[in-house]
Write a structure and sequence with these properties.
Number of strands: 30
Structural class: mainly beta
Low-confidence stretches: 1-46
Distance between the termini: 39 Å
CATH topology: Methylamine Dehydrogenase, Chain H
CATH superfamily: YVTN repeat-like/Quinoprotein amine dehydrogenase
Mean pLDDT: 89
Helix content: under 10%
Order of helices and strands: EEEEEEEEEEEEEEEEEEEEEEEEEEEEEE
């Protein structure tokens, strides 16, 4: 319930009417407003260095919520209906599949390791939060973890290496039951190492990017739901954590959705508000130059609604692509100005293998290859 937008008071204080990702409902739509402060709404065709966008056929009509390129040829994506898709030829062809026994689950994150090996994270309350792994290209899947806490809800994960990763859950009784693997097979609860949750705090399971890892031991977690959107950060592989405030909009339906770092110090965080009565909130993007300890607001992206996912463009130092159901945009200066990807809507997640090979994924099984 913490992942849904409360619109009507009901039993327990909330009746869920519109959701972020609790159902397969398409997110908010809209067109960018002209004249926003400092924001470029130039079409890609008019901007030097703008990317080339190539639609690809995923083989599914289910919503895709996460994407993980292994390299320029091998890419995994995942979504609702127990769905995963895989390409081994850069997206020329995709193979879609469902994990047996998981047909009703929503795979809101995926970690590709190779053409044969990948992890899937399903998000949901109680036993619907699970981690699966394949070592044969998705022909078979092994259930590695199944949540047993009724109030836990696992949102996203990220990995330092094929065998070392973190998975984040919303709090249970003020404690984040974060789990960690160091062998790629078993998961341990390290929640006691994290700071206590703020009242109402949670993460948004929108694009599989509420956790970001970097190097061998650094990781950042983006949260919202409380009066302050925070970054939870570790520099030692999850053994200890700090919590830092961000200036992003945050309330019961708003906060930080997605975070990325291009090195140990320089990163970007983005989010917004799911409330349809606040379709274009301010304070949606901020950057850090000190490893996430402090954050400075930058310009608003030129599309309405929340930023669900973002990614640095590998190989182009400060170039970032941001996306949400209502639009997508790119920045060559780390969010200080933005260029709209004209006509691109309905994409929830984005990731890059190189500046020539990135992918946007979203509703209806849509996939766009992005090449700078």
């Amino acid at each position: 319930m913490r992942h849904c937008l409360p619109l009507v008071a009901g039993a327990g204080g909330l009746t869920i009417a519109v959701t972020l990702a609790c159902s397969s409902a398409v997110g908010p739509s809209g067109t960018p407003a002209d004249g926003q402060r400092g924001v470029s709404t130039t079409t890609p065709e008019q901007v030097a260095g703008a990317p080339t966008l190539t639609p690809q056929t995923s083989g599914t009509t289910n919503r895709l919520q996460a994407v993980s390129p292994v390299n320029q040829n091998v890419v995994w994506a995942s979504g609702v209906g127990g769905t995963f898709v895989l390409t081994t030829d850069g997206g020329e062809t995709w193979r879609a599949g469902q994990v047996p026994g998981a047909e009703t689950l929503e795979f809101r994150d995926v970690e590709g390791v190779s053409a044969k090996e990948a992890y899937l994270l399903s998000s949901g309350t109680g036993a619907d939060s699970r981690i699966y792994k394949t070592t044969d290209g998705g022909q078979t899947w092994t259930l590695q973890f199944q949540n047993t806490k009724p109030d836990a809800f696992y949102d996203c994960f990220d990995f330092w290496t094929p065998n070392r990763g973190l998975t984040f859950s919303d709090p249970v009784s003020g404690r984040f039951p974060v789990i960690r693997t160091t062998d790629g097979e078993t998961w341990e609860d390290i929640g006691d190492q994290l700071r206590a949750a703020l009242n109402g705090e949670f993460a948004f399971a929108a694009s599989g990017t509420c956790v970001a890892t970097q190097g061998g031991n650094r990781a950042w977690i983006a949260t919202g739901g409380a009066t302050t959107a925070r970054i939870l950060a570790t520099t030692d592989g999850g053994n200890s954590w700090q919590a830092y405030a961000t200036p992003l909009v945050s309330n019961s339906s708003a906060g930080a959705f997605t975070v990325a770092f291009r090195d140990p110090f320089n990163g970007i965080v983005a989010g917004g508000d799911l409330d349809p009565n606040n379709p274009s909130p301010e304070n949606r993007v901020a950057i850090s130059g000190d490893g996430g300890q402090t954050w400075q607001l930058v310009e608003e992206p030129p599309f309405d609604g929340a930023v669900f996912g973002l990614s640095y463009v590998t190989g182009i130092r400060q170039t970032v692509v941001a996306t949400g159901p209502a639009g997508s945009a790119w920045s060559s200066d780390e969010g200080r100005s933005w260029n709209l990807l004209n006509g691109v809507t309905g994409h929830w997640a984005v990731a890059f293998a190189s500046h020539k090979a990135g992918w946007l994924v979203g509703t209806g099984g849509r996939i766009l290859k992005v090449s700078f």
